[in-house]
UniProtKB/TrEMBL annotation:
This is S-layer homology domain-containing protein. Residues 24-87 form the SLH domain. Keywords: Signal. Residues 1-23 form the signal peptide. The keyword Signal applies. It comes from Selenomonas ruminantium.
Length: 425
């Protein structure tokens, strides 16, 4: 009996010791929430050293395993970072030395054999209701309603440790008329990252970051070179199709609506402060109208813009921007001031945010602004407010309302109601 008990206890101790040893080196054990490694990994993601889960994001809503951490670190080590980034990598490598040693070959094999193309997507429904001061024959307010269903697919293909190809396929359905619309390739470009320098070549997003989208939020064909860390210099050149604009007055010259484009931005972000300045030059016969210049023969646009954001704390932020087109004679100035409260994070159910802004949108300077409620480049000024809410993970709901006046219709009143539901996958 005693021998049996001793034998059982001995076996239990051996198994327990073995289990403890396995747990300590188990690559699939979670890195505890609050571990310092998360801060280091997030910093390296911001510096484009670690690529997170392939879509340049780090899923901070959940913990990761030591295996996942080791995989990220192994990829980062292959980039041979320098300076502070190297110090962070060395610290992480020491923490996850066992996982890197034991899984290093396996990680390399996975990198070679893993699916090179990763897909994400969004299905979105949007609704606009425009109401103007003009009256119908029966005295009722003129209004136009529009609802749209859209599917967006985002493939990202890894070429090597520096280069990726990114694209977006978009299919649109206008629901009011059950119009199937069209499917198109919104953008496709090569994206190369070398330390603090990034190069994009092809059809790519066209966003005026320095003024928070006051001038542009579209796509263009060309090249973008961004260099720097806290202070970044952005150089762009290419061609832009103005036919995507919402300007009803834009001429349609025989030569087409495409403009040649060159631009430069300086963007700074550190701590609570972000800001920038930019200059953009466009040339196209599309500008040769009496609503652009007195001569109706000016084909150039020279647009200067400034913008900044100050984040007071985790809840409040204030942003502002100003832009002017020195070549235009009319509707050549734009400005925006906005207060933001909290923010909706699609990964966190129950999160929400709200904003209140005052916008002055001159159509000859804000060529394709980012605001959903002001109709792109529609010559308006007024108050814009909205809210966003995440009812469940990866589902975004948004409501917005604009109340203001038209700049080109004797200050006639205009209103826009906007709603959106997005499903991310």
């Amino acid at each position: 009996m005693k021998k049996t008990l001793v034998s059982a206890l001995t076996t239990a101790l051996v198994v327990g010791a073995a289990s403890t040893t396995f747990a300590a080196s188990n690559p699939f054990a979670d890195v505890p929430a609050g571990h310092w490694a998360y801060d280091s990994i997030n910093q390296l993601i911001d510096d484009n050293v670690i690529e997170g889960y392939g879509d340049n994001t780090f899923r901070g809503e959940r913990t990761i395993t030591r295996y996942e951490a080791a995989q990220m670190i192994a990829k980062a080590m292959a980039k041979k970072p320098t300076g502070e980034d190297k110090a962070q990598i060395d610290k992480l490598a020491a923490e996850f030395a066992d996982e890197l040693n034991n899984l290093g070959v396996r990680v390399s094999d996975l990198e070679r054999n893993a699916d090179k193309v990763k897909w994400t997507g969004e299905a979105r429904y949007r609704y606009w209701s425009y109401r103007d001061a003009k009256k119908n024959a029966d005295g009722s307010t003129q209004k136009t309603n529009r609802d749209q269903l859209q599917l967006r697919l985002f493939p990202t293909a890894e070429i090597n440790e520096h280069w990726k190809v990114k694209a977006r396929f978009t299919a649109t359905n206008m629901m009011k008329n059950d119009n199937a619309g069209n499917a198109s390739l919104s953008f496709a470009y090569a994206d190369g990252v070398y330390g603090n320098c990034e190069v994009k070549v092809g059809k790519q997003p066209f966003y005026s970051l320095n003024d928070n989208g006051l001038i542009l939020d579209d796509f263009f064909s060309g090249i973008n070179v961004t260099a720097g860390k806290d202070l970044k210099v952005v150089l762009e050149a290419g061609r832009w199709d103005l036919d995507n604009r919402a300007n009803s007055y834009v001429a349609r010259p025989a030569s087409g609506d495409t403009a040649s484009y060159q631009g430069i931005q300086l963007n700074y972000q550190k701590g609570k402060i972000a800001g920038g300045a930019g200059f953009r030059h466009f040339t196209t016969d599309t500008f040769k109208t009496a609503r652009y210049s007195k001569s109706a023969n000016d084909s150039k646009a020279d647009i200067w813009s400034l913008g900044g954001t100050y984040t007071f704390d985790k809840n409040w932020a204030l942003q502002g921007a100003y832009a002017e087109n020195s070549e235009a004679d009319y509707y050549k100035k734009s400005g925006n001031v906005e207060v933001d409260y909290k923010g909706a994070n699609k990964a966190n159910a129950g999160s929400w945010g709200a904003f209140l802004g005052y916008r002055h949108i001159g159509s000859n300077v804000s060529l394709m602004p980012t605001f959903d409620t002001t109709r792109a480049a529609a010559n308006v000024k007024g108050w814009d407010l909205g809210t966003s809410y995440i009812p469940m993970k990866n589902v975004l709901t948004t409501l917005g309302y604009f109340h203001g006046k038209q700049l080109d219709q004797h200050n006639d009143k205009t209103q826009t109601l906007y709603a959106r539901v997005s499903y991310f996958f």
